[in-house]
Design brief:
The chain is of the alpha/beta class. The chain has 10 helices and 24 strands.
Length: about 400
């Protein structure tokens, strides 16, 4: 019977990982199944563009995986039984011998009342489409409040302001807008907000969301026709409920090879994994981290199952590339301690860099058979796995 590898999630980490595994493992020995809630690969870091009214290219997973031997199951994962090595997805129970968990993250409500009932978000394609329709229904002069001054909040606010110049866009952040950027990057960010006419409420923490906007902790009313919640992300609770060792935020605790520290037949990559980067700090939830952790996880799976040497891939944090509409951006590099450097690439050059990275990532995922080797590796007679520690009931 072939060794069953199940990949949960087909985002930037999962879809790419499945293609790499299919390229390097012999189909006679391995059966690769990808479980995803949607039939398409979703360019998540472009969802703010979709919400603002731009159209994105469709990437069907069935077409992408055609000819690779990868089996696609379109279903929402609801539970994992790590002891029995089964996954509940829709009405099915899917068994596995090796599991790669890449379910990513979703909106982080942080316990704020009214977010679920009254706020929109761009954490997934259905949510982005709901926001798109709501914005399309707004007449000129309508108001949009974006809550959150991180990368997602900045990109949502600038994209809406550029695509819908007739709307009044504001952003509320609990800190200083772009305070984590270097001096040149922050000056450029503030200039872009001024150019696009975006109003900023700094040092403003939202206490609750209402149908007519939000209310800050000091009682200040932030009126808006539409409130977009972009105040961070949270991982799905599935891992924490599965018996896997997780951190306090629910991310799976993994070793340097991206193996679960409690269940070495489970690997994690992307936003779902808690791993210490090469700079000695936990890698942040980001597309860049998804790429690096995916490379290490697939290398470890291939090595553990075929007896090959496992290369140690980079787990680096290089910086942030922030879109400010379609033709403007900031690429902020960081030093070894993850502190922003004083200089940043800005404007059109930074926008070109980001578009190149986005297109490169999507091309690699949508062409999983590229570089398919003539001879793929076979399952080792005695696959190497670290000894699994005892887990208390």
């Amino acid at each position: 019977m072939p060794h069953r590898i199940t990949v949960l999630g087909a985002g930037y980490a999962g879809a790419s990982a499945a293609g790499v595994l299919a390229r390097h493992l012999h189909p006679d020995d391995f059966e690769i199944t990808v479980v995803n809630a949607e039939p398409d690969f979703v360019e998540r870091i472009r969802l703010h563009q979709l919400a603002a009214g731009r159209d994105l290219r469709r990437f069907g997973l069935a077409e992408m995986f055609a000819g690779t031997g990868i089996q696609l199951r379109v279903a929402r994962v609801t539970a994992i039984d790590a002891g029995r090595r089964t996954v509940s997805a829709g009405d099915d129970q899917i068994g596995y011998d090796t599991l790669l968990y890449t379910l990513g993250s979703t909106i982080g409500e942080h316990g704020v009342p009214g977010v679920a009932e009254h706020a929109f978000d761009v954490a997934g394609r259905p949510a982005a489409l709901r926001l798109r329709q709501r914005l399309a229904d707004l007449p000129d002069g309508g108001s949009v409040l974006v809550v959150g001054g991180n990368l997602t909040g900045i990109e949502v606010a600038t994209e809406i302001a550029e695509c819908r110049p007739g709307l009044r866009v504001s952003l509320a952040t609990s800190g200083e807008l772009g305070g984590w950027l270097g001096p040149s990057g922050r000056r450029h960010l503030l200039g872009a907000f001024d150019r696009l006419g975006i109003t900023v409420a700094q040092h403003t923490t939202v206490a609750r969301v209402e149908p007519t906007g939000a209310v800050a902790t000091d009682g200040t009313a932030l009126s808006a026709d539409v409130t977009v919640w972009a105040a961070g992300f949270a991982v799905h609770p599935i891992a924490a409920a599965s018996g896997l060792a997780v951190e306090s935020d629910g991310r799976i605790t993994v070793d340097r090879m991206m193996r679960s520290v409690s269940h070495p037949d489970v690997y994690a990559a992307g936003d779902s994994a808690f791993v210490i980067g090469d700079n000695g700090q936990p890698l942040p939830m980001s597309c860049g981290s998804a790429g690096f952790t995916r490379m290490q996880a697939t290398a470890a799976i291939i090595g553990d199952l075929t007896g090959q040497r496992i290369p140690k891939t980079s787990l680096a944090y290089l910086g942030n590339c922030i879109s400010l509409g379609s033709r403007d951006a900031i690429f902020q590099t960081v030093d070894g301690a993850a502190r922003s450097r004083s200089w940043a690439l800005r404007g059109r050059p930074a926008s070109l860099v980001k578009n190149f990275v986005l297109r490169g990532a999507t091309w690699g995922i949508s062409n999983p058979t590229y570089g398919l080797p003539a001879r793929r590796r076979r399952l080792a007679k005695a696959p190497h796995r670290p000894v699994q520690p005892a887990v208390a009931d």
